[in-house]
What we know:
binds adenosine-5'-triphosphate
Amino acid sequence: MIDTVAMPAARTPILRATGISKVYGAVRALGGIDFDLYPGEVLGIVGDNGAGKSTFIKILSGAIAPDSGAIEVEGAPVHFRGPLDARRAGIETVFQELAVVPLMDVEENFFLGRELCSPGPLGWLKLLTKKKMRTQAADEIAELRVGIPSVRQRVGTLSGGQRQSVAVARAVAWSRKIVIMDEPTAALGVKESRGVQELIKRVRDRGTAVILISHNMPQVFDVTDRIFVLRHGTHAGTVKTLDTDMEQVIKLITGATLHEHGRSE
Ligand SMILES: Nc1ncnc2c1ncn2[C@@H]1O[C@H](COP(=O)(O)OP(=O)(O)OP(=O)(O)O)[C@@H](O)[C@H]1O
Ligand SMILES: [Mg+2]
């Protein structure tokens, strides 16, 4: 196996998972995964269908509980009982099965579950916050260049790609430490996918770490610093994006050995 790319020892991972396992009936979705994410990096998670990528990030974002294993945020142990706990710890997630509410409009979706966050007991303060929030929602969506006609449009009437963009913009807008995106551009066109790639870079530039799950190899190579490969629920290796190429990553994904390149598995 290729060793995890060494990071300076002094840096504490912003997110660390150790020994993460999950079994569904007879399927071992994840078997003892060790994982590190460093501040300000973009980490790609790749692997074939069913490799365990979504299961893994659902565990990192509190959506499901692992059978065993531990998670630390900035060196401190955390126990997420749900996505809200993860959000409170600064982790925002765009799930593969988008968690948008079709009957609500774009803005309401944007602030779903956040209402309680508005500060101040006074009504006018809440109103101000809401106004600020609306501007923020519109700004984030405009930055993505997805052409959503209005933040007042019901999400159920948006196209699949527009809906996906709302979920991405929402996660980015609220992220404080980490954004996790599970195939955020699967439903997007070329222009919109580029928009998300640029957004990921902007998020990184403001110091937020990003985990990107994608089957789109050129995209993964464009935006990531490291690539973490899962194969059949195990960690097949982690490579530094600048030191690797698609052929090597595909070999890690499929399990082909790398001996002919002088590297050992
Ligand atoms: N709720 C569940 N119940 C039973 N099996 C599940 C469940 N969720 C995931 N699995 C199984 O766990 C394995 C890993 O699934 P997961 O969704 O994590 O894969 P993935 O890497 O995200 O794949 P894809 O690229 O297709 O999204 C698969 O074999 C899947 O069938
Ligand atoms: Mg998945």
